[in-house]
Design goal:
Pfam families: Bac_small_YrzI. This protein has a domain at 18-46. The chain has 46 residues and is an all-alpha fold. It contains one helix and no strands.
């Protein structure tokens, strides 16, 4: 009889975000949403 057990641990650490990182993430989200909106417009024209 073989008993195989997988042991693992998960650790969660809160990340500290600097002002520059937050600004960069916000710009990236805006660019992503703008591109997504543009794709919808182009798709509707087809």
């Amino acid at each position: 009889m073989t008993l195989n057990i997988l042991f693992f641990s998960v650790s969660i650490n809160k990340r500290k975000i600097t002002g520059e990182d937050a600004l960069r993430q916000e710009k990236a989200r805006k660019v992503y949403s703008d591109n997504k909106a543009q794709q919808v417009v182009i798709h509707r024209m087809i």
